[in-house]
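To illustrate the input format used throughout this study, we show a single complete record. The first block contains the structure-token representation of the backbone; no residue identities are included at this stage. The design step must infer an amino acid for every position from geometry alone.
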């Protein structure tokens, strides 16, 4: 097994050699910003069945309940979350002309806040609420949630502009993800358990098209050892810091 220093150096070398890297990120990259993942120990899906609180049919039938047990708490956390060194590292890679696009399963808007300009949000955005009647969008942090569910001026219920279970992935996001993935030279996979489709298939598409796949995650995933060329066992923030330090000292 390669030492941590050797893994970091190899990742920095691959990144320094390209102007067309793409990142695929998941809930893990935002954990250091205080936003918990849903899956795994202590996660939301341990306490609730997603089909009973995060399914589109449940939202249509009982929006007050979905706001009460899911949306209100998420809003409380996400309204104040700020990017961590993992997000900032990806923004720095874009500023250096290395990273082109971030494909994310996250709905927290932290990549844009960190400074990445081309972010494909696979699962939509929690930064916005959308009226279920007139489609008007309002910023989540401006929504008053003392009376549930919050409503639009037209009387319609406000809902997160994010993809619920039972809803389709936005087709344009899916199409653009596949295009950028197939064209990239390096794919950086950060903080995703790689079990949710279709995001999980992106690293495979990258690899089949000749890209180097670099994975950063404290735990191995189904990609590890199978699809990933490099697996760096570590947290997003400090690992990105180390890769950038190696990369920028070589310039
Ligand atoms: P996941 O919860 O399935 O997996 C999270 C992964 O992050 C795990 O593999 C874990 O080992 C890893 N991880 C834990 N700590 C880490 C750290 N400090 N640095 C890097 N990696 C770390 O996440 P997923 O694959 O993104 O799927 C969950 C779905 O739930 C997503 O589709 C997303 O829409 C939604 N979600 C979003 C947010 C958010 O917007 N921040 C948060 C929770 C869930
Ligand atoms: Zn409305």
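Output of the design step:
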């Amino acid at each position: 097994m390669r030492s941590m220093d050797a893994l970091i150096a190899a990742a920095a070398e691959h990144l320094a050699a390209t102007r067309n890297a793409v990142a695929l990120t998941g809930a893990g990259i935002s954990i250091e910003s205080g936003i918990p993942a849903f899956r795994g120990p202590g996660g939301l899906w341990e306490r609730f069945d997603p089909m009973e609180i995060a399914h589109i049919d449940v939202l249509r039938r009982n929006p007050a309940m979905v706001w009460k047990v899911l949306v209100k708490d998420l809003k409380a956390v996400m309204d104040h979350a700020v990017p961590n060194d993992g997000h900032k590292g990806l923004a720095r890679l874009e500023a250096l002309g290395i990273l082109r696009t971030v494909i994310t399963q996250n709905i927290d808007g932290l990549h844009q806040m960190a400074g990445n300009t081309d972010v494909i949000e696979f699962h939509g955005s929690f930064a916005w609420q959308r009226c279920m009647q007139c489609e008007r969008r309002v910023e989540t942090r401006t929504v008053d949630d003392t009376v549930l569910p919050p409503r639009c001026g037209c009387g319609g219920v406000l809902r997160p502009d994010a993809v619920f279970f039972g809803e389709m992935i936005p087709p344009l996001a899916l199409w653009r993800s596949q295009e950028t993935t197939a064209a990239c030279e390096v794919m950086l996979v950060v903080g995703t358990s790689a079990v949710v489709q279709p995001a999980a298939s992106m690293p495979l598409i990258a690899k089949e098209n000749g890209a180097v796949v670099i994975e950063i995650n404290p735990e191995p995933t189904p990609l590890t050892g199978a699809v990933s060329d490099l697996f760096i066992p570590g947290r997003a923030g400090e690992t990105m810091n180390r890769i950038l330090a190696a990369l920028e000292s070589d310039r």
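Structural context for interpreting the output: Residues 26-32, 35, 37-39, 105-108, 123, 191-193, 196, 217-219, 221, 235-236 surround nicotinamide-adenine-dinucleotide (ligand 1) (CB under 6 Å). Strands lie at 21-25, 99-104, 119-121, 124-131, 137-139, 158-162, 186-190, 212-216, 230-232.
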